[in-house]
Amino acid sequence: MTDAVIIPFPQRGPAAAGPDAQSDRLHTALQSLQAALDEQRRALSEWRFAMAELGIGVAGLGHSMAGYQHALGGIDNKLSGLRHEACKLEAWADGALAPDAGAADA
After folding, report:
1. Contact, 16 vs 25, CB < 8 A?
2. Buried/exposed code over 3-18 (b: 16+ C-beta within 10 A; e: otherwise)
3. Is the model's pTM score more than 0.90?
4. Quick one: CA torsion of 23, 29, 33, 39, rounded to 10 degrees?
5. In whole angstroms, what is the distance from residue 50 CA to residue 45 CA?
6. pLDDT (tens digit per residue) in 18-49
7. Which DSSP letter does residue 15 get?
8. 29/13 Cα distance (integer angstroms)
9. Ramachandran area for residue 17 (φ above 0: left; ψ -120 to 50: alpha; else beta)
10. Three-state SS for 72?
């Protein structure tokens, strides 16, 4: 076992001079934590605002799409009426041409 290599644990630097230094380190750490929490709070607030704006935009889009759907339904009704009138006109034209075809055969 003479080949074994012993790796020492890392040593902390020299201990700070007394409890005031420890208190200062804790105070600094708490300030950093508070700053991080404030930043997270601000980011969350901005995200919520963005989500609210997105919701407003999507609601507006839904309203516009409903308007387009209603308009397309009206156009469909008008086109159906025009198709019905065109079929009637076609039937009338076919009827009007039929006697001429019969007269040509005679």
Report:
1. yes
2. eeeeeeeeeeeeeeee
3. no
4. 120
5. 9
6. 678 888 999 999 999 999 999 999 999 999 99
7. P
8. 18
9. beta
10. helix
